Amino acid sequence: MFISTYENKLDKKGRVSVPAAYRSHLSTLGYNGVVCYPSFTNSSIEFCPQDRLEKIIETIETLNPFEENRDIFSTSILANSSQLNFDGDGRITLNEKLLEHSKIKEKVLFVGQGKTFQMWEPTLFKKFSDDARKKANLKRSELKWKQSN
Questions:
Q1: Could you say which DSSP state residue 145 is in?
Q2: Which architecture does CATH list for 5-138?
Q3: What would you report as the CA-atom Rg of the chain, rounded to the nearest whole angstrom?
Q4: What whole-number distance in Å separates Cα of residue 119 and Cα of residue 102?
Q5: How far, CA to CA in Å, does 81 sit from each of 38, 98, 110, 135?
Q6: Domain boundaries in the chain?
Q7: pTM of the model
Q8: Within 13 A of 125's CA, how many CA atoms are on the CB side?
Q9: I need a surface site. Which of 46, 54, 113, 144 has the fewest CB within 10 A?
């Protein structure tokens, strides 16, 4: 799983080293890279293994092909997705569109989300994280604990 937060630097060629823990997890799943797309809910870049994107595609495919929602989700996620493979040093290269969306210039935060992870510009993540903690505190009773048998 993808947990914790890591900071790395973006080089002049748009390359950044993915945390070893994240690469290790992807490797155990059989992947030497990751899929990403610009988040449509915030300024982060969303990252997931290929099988997660396949589940998203399957979900989109359940929508009526003649309804607007299918085109909206396909365009927002699939048309903007990139398959990024790790180089020999565990780096990926971010394209201009991703850098522009995320406002990442030099420093990069990798933020674990369980089955996925996000990449953030550190200042923007700080604000988002502070707001999220406040909201989580207010909504903590909504997080239901599933009892096992």
A1: P
A2: 3-Layer(aba) Sandwich (3.40)
A3: 17
A4: 8
A5: 8, 10, 18, 29
A6: 5-138
A7: 0.90
A8: 19
A9: 144
Question: C-alpha distances in angstroms, 55 versus 51, 58, 60, 62, 85?
Answer: 6, 5, 9, 11, 20
Per-residue pLDDT in tens (0 to 9) along the chain, 149 residues: 999 999 999 999 999 999 999 999 999 999 999 999 999 899 999 999 999 999 999 999 999 999 999 999 999 999 999 999 999 999 999 999 999 999 999 999 999 999 999 999 999 999 999 999 999 999 999 888 888 76
Going by their DSSP bridges, the two strands 33-38 and 107-112 should be labelled as: unpaired
d(CA 2, CA 26): 9
Residues 138 and 149: their CA atoms lie apart, in Å, by 29
The structure tokens listed for 32 are 């030497």
